[in-house]
Automatic annotation (TrEMBL):
Transmembrane feature ranges: 14-38, 58-76, 88-111, 132-150
Family per similarity comment: Belongs to the MS4A family.
GO biological process, one term: cell surface receptor signaling pathway
Listed GO CC annotations: plasma membrane
Keywords, comma-separated and alphabetical: Membrane, Transmembrane, Transmembrane helix
The species this protein was found in: Chinchilla lanigera
InterPro entries hit by this protein: CD20-like, MS4A
Claim: Transmembrane helix is one of the keywords in the record: yes
A Pfam family assignment: CD20
Major localisation: membrane
Membrane topology value: Multi-pass membrane protein
Coiled-coil boundaries: none
Annotated localization: Membrane
Name by which UniProt lists this protein: Membrane spanning 4-domains A13
Length: 174
């Protein structure tokens, strides 16, 4: 298998987990921002702007990213086979959620129905937030894919341990 020789250090795994937690928190905060933004709309002639991603709560799925990041950090600190497998499962869940969110965001950004002039500014700002979240989803897919490849490599070596770098092994020897 191609990922059999992949290695990741403990510090890299901790950093990736922390980044994933930050991306999840950012997504949840953006959902709250969109909630406040869209709740303040006024019923106009053309109606309110309620995009597909807002209705499905895609940005609220950032909770999956937070849980997966916590599991990554726990796996890096105490690498066991069960934690590695659960980290892989959560990475798969996050990758799926990010892919679905990315597709829904692209559908939302490709179609724009006219809204009331009173709500146009809110709709425009909401679309800009969706563009930022599209980049976040892409980054989330990349992070979970790379970490999954490295965790797959550690499982193929016959143990669930995250490999340590030469500098970490030297530091622990002293």
């Amino acid at each position: 298998m191609a990922c059999g020789n992949a290695h990741i250090s403990k510090s890299d795994s901790l950093a990736v987990g922390a980044v994933q937690i930050m991306l999840g928190i950012f997504s949840v905060l953006m959902w709250y921002f969109l909630l406040v933004l869209y709740m303040g709309q006024i019923k106009g002639v053309f109606g309110k702007y309620e995009p597909l991603t807002y209705k499905t709560g895609c940005t609220l799925w950032g909770i999956f990213f937070i849980v997966s990041g916590v599991c990554m950090i726990k796996t890096a600190k105490n690498p066991t086979r069960a934690l590695t497998i659960s980290s892989l499962g959560l990475n798969l869940l996050c990758m799926t959620a990010a892919l679905i969110s990315m597709v829904l965001t692209l559908v939302e950004l490709s179609s724009f129905k006219s809204v009331s002039y009173k709500n146009y500014g809110q709709a425009k700002l909401g679309r800009e937030v969706s563009r930022v979240l599209l980049a976040v989803y892409f980054l989330e897919i990349f992070i979970t894919l790379m970490h999954s490849i490295f965790m797959c490599g550690s499982l193929n070596r016959g143990h669930g341990a995250v490999s340590t770098s030469a500098t970490e092994e030297t530091e622990t020897a002293f």
